[in-house]
Amino acid sequence: MSDLPVNLKYACSHEWVLVEEDNLVRVGITDFAQSELGDLVFVQLPELGRQVIANEQCAVVESVKTASDLYSPVSGEIVATNLVLSNEPEQINDNPYGTWIFCVKSDDLSTLDQLMDADTYQAFIE
Fold it and tell me: Has this prediction a pTM greater than 0.85?
């Protein structure tokens, strides 16, 4: 598989996570996930302001093959969604690590300790 960005954390449900300043958590799907799904045709974004708990389903990506739920890696409030994906879901296929789907503002990042680093995720998907 391709080189995984080492600055990200990875969930067993194939989301990638980037922790930014002020406990902002940016979430997308991995290259492995998008390649397994195939060409994405629709992204159902979570509602802004929605309160989520860690590991709660909050978004959906649909491809020509299937649909897949996305999960929040942390508890908090959905504070941003990538609206470009409503019209251009294929951006995820083109650049999975450069295309985020939603952001969560969290008061508790402790659940991120359960996520994998790049090497562990690489072993997980092999």
Answer: yes
